[in-house]
Amino acid sequence: MVSALADVWSDQTTLAIVLRRLGTRFSSKAKEEDFFELLLALFASVPLNFALTAALLEYGSRLGEGPLAEHLALCSLRQQDPGKRVMWGSGDFLGQHRVSQISNRILTLMKYDIGRIEPNLDPFILAARVHEKISIPITILEGLFDRQRGNLAFDPWQSAVKKAFALDHMFQDAAFLGLTHEFHARSCVDMEEWSRVATDIASSHRTVCMIFHGGHLSICRFMWGCEAKWQFLGSKAGPNGMSAKTDPRGLLFAAFKEVQKGVPLLVAPDGNYGNCSEELRVLGATVLGGEGAAFIAFHARARLVWLQFVFNDDVLVPIIIDGPTPKKNETYRSFKDRCNAFYGSCIEDVLTGAPENIVLRSHWMQVLTDTFQPRKEPTAS
């Protein structure tokens, strides 16, 4: 078992998935202890990496072995060759493990080379500094590179993608890095344009904004959450947010009522929660998504738009694109089909466009891994 896991240590995304599947359910404490022993053996046999360390810290904490796990992690980190990097995967976010504050500081240090909060941290500089640490499966990179609309060579294209991933991770991990809206978000975003876009959204009678689990998702949700009373419908409840995992149908109608009152709503129809029965076609893949955005837009007679942030002159600029509006006597089924086609095309535009805007969360990583075929020959740099 140890050797089998060690074979995939360099692919952080795969390793994280393997460890989570192995460690999700145990019928007894003895089996959980056996799993911890397995992690210890693996930890001693492979180079230091984020996914394995996070699992070790989490299961050590569960079994009362947290100090031991933390001691081993810190010792390994101190002994790490300065010339080598602690790799982390596209799904390795801070805060998703039930560990102590000390463990979280260790993971933050491993991921970002930062041991404490730096108030004057520049997100762009940090993203440039740590982007080479992120592990993205080569099948994903080559598949997207082959479909790019630009003409960049592979190496600069890949570097730009990894910097985008790193920046997205940083705002998702904002609480651990001390990132704030007042300073850090404003330094990254064209605030004049965001003010204009926010005014446009708020001044519409009713607005439903669609995003997807990719692009600059974290900064989008970060900025949205700072707007008073604006709502977003997602898998996790947060500031101004409603959780769609607890009661998807009930939350759909709660969101519908909010939109009827004129409250702007942010929703990602590609989320794998609720009734995912709508087919979204992107880059040859068929993904099941929800119909909440189309349902609310149709029945509340709301404006439906696509919202994203894109790089322009070293700053993130928000843009909105108006989606379909119901035609006279159009059926809901017809409108929903047009919404799905529009949404799929917007996602595809991001994934085939400028590499500095390409980010994927774990769901899309899996979908595109299953869709893209590995190359027989290596990519020319």
Number of domains: 2
Instruction: Tell me what portion of residues adopts beta-strand conformation.
Output: 5-15%
Q: Quick one: how many beta strands?
A: 10
* Strand line-up of the largest beta sheet: 5-4-6-3-9-10
Shape: globular
For this entry, give a set of tags.
381 residues; globular
Could you write a compact summary of the structure shown?
With 381 residues, the chain is an alpha/beta fold.
Question: Any overview of this molecule?
Answer:
With 381 residues, the protein is of the alpha/beta class. It folds into two domains: 2-112, no CATH class; 183-370, no CATH class. The chain contains 17 helices and ten strands. It has helices at 2-6, 12-22, 29-45, 50-62, 66-79, 101-112, 123-130, 138-146, 154-172, 174-177, 181-188, 191-203, 217-225, 248-260, 292-299, 332-351, 362-371; strands at residues 88-89, 134-135, 207-210, 231-234, 241-243, 265-267, 278-282, 285-289, 303-312, 315-322. Strands 5-4-6-3-9-10 form a six-stranded mixed sheet, with helices on both faces. β9 and β10 form a beta hairpin. The longest helix is centred in the last third of the chain and has 20 residues, at 332-351. It is globular. The relative contact order is 0.11. The model has no long low-confidence stretch (mean pLDDT 86).
Write the layout of secondary structure elements.
Layout: H1 2-6, H2 12-22, H3 29-45, H4 50-62, H5 66-79, E1 88-89, H6 101-112, H7 123-130, E2 134-135, H8 138-146, H9 154-172, H10 174-177, H11 181-188, H12 191-203, E3 207-210, H13 217-225, E4 231-234, E5 241-243, H14 248-260, E6 265-267, E7 278-282, E8 285-289, H15 292-299, E9 303-312, E10 315-322, H16 332-351, H17 362-371
Helix pairs in contact: 2-4, 3-4, 4-5, 4-6, 5-6, 7-9, 9-13
